[in-house]
Amino acid sequence: MTASTQINHARRLPIPSGLTIAASLSLIFVITPLIVVAGAALNAEAMSFPPRQLTLHWMIAALTEGSFVEGAIISFAVAIVAATVSTIFALPVAIQLRKAPPALAKILTLSFMGPLLVPSVIFALSLYSVMIYAFGGTNLFVLMIGHIMITMPYPVRTITAVTEGLDPALEDAASSVGATPWRTFIAVMLPLIKPGVIAGFLFAFITSWNDFSISIFLTPRELQPLPIKIYEYLLYQYRPLIAAVSTWSVIGSAIIVIAIDRLVGLNVFTGRRN
Fold it and tell me: Is residue 47 part of a domain?
């Protein structure tokens, strides 16, 4: 290869743009803590990275530690209920937002996005004050209400994103052949908006599963979800066991995100469909 050929070849090499570099740095910034935690979970003795002696002892112990297993079961139950209820409530909201005038629809959508716009601690403190005034204390029911409120924006957004692309003539056609509004929804609308429903449910589940701010205020002492169990463990101990529990939680969340992407695509949440 001549010198001129080498120069021409070098000139053809793509130079990453500033946006590409910024995106790569952001990805590294997000992924690095997860790698460190996973590495610490594989360390035999202490919480350190890189691990000095590789072992799966803590990863196995995390699956059998009674306190964390109990917290995971509670988190799973709360997340299932919260995601289910918030998705059911989001269905009529999203359908009505589609029929509302554009200006009103934007205002209402912004209102339902409220829990995402307010700092989580401030929202949790405000919700705690309301629940204390309304119910006189915290219990499982109060915790469920809090999780439903913080998860509802996700199914509202995903279902709205899907309904925006529906042809209104489909509903008119169903009505013209005698279908009731309920029959039209079940037979025509629901199959078409199913991707948004599934994505919203899964996003809501992840949000509830990983929530700390609402749970720390509203959790009753006898029923603590996994994030609170992790927090209390860190107050008194600092062993690789806690890194293993966190790693399993990250793995579970990653599996759900992959499932969302495979089933409906992550772009459903942004409002852009394939």
Answer: yes
Number of domains forming the structure of the chain: 2
Same domain, 46 and 74: no
* Token pair belonging to 211: 């929530």
User: Which of 5, 27, 55 is the last residue before a domain boundary?
Assistant: 55
DSSP line for 38-62: HHHHTBSSSS-SS-SSB-SHHHHHH
Q: Are 68 and 248 in contact (CB under 8 A)?
A: no
Each residue's pLDDT expressed in tens, for the chain with a length of 274 residues: 555 555 555 455 566 666 777 777 777 877 777 787 777 777 777 777 777 777 788 788 888 888 888 888 988 999 999 999 999 988 888 877 777 777 777 777 777 777 777 777 888 888 888 888 877 777 788 888 888 988 888 888 888 877 776 666 666 676 666 666 677 777 777 777 787 888 888 889 988 888 888 888 888 877 888 888 888 888 887 778 888 888 888 888 888 878 777 766 666 555 444 4
Domain co-membership, 150 together with 31: no
- Asked if 147 and 79 count as a contact pair (C-beta separation under 8 A), the reply is yes
Are 31 and 110 members of one domain? Answer: no
The model's pTM is: 0.78
**Containing structural domain, residue 222:** 69-268
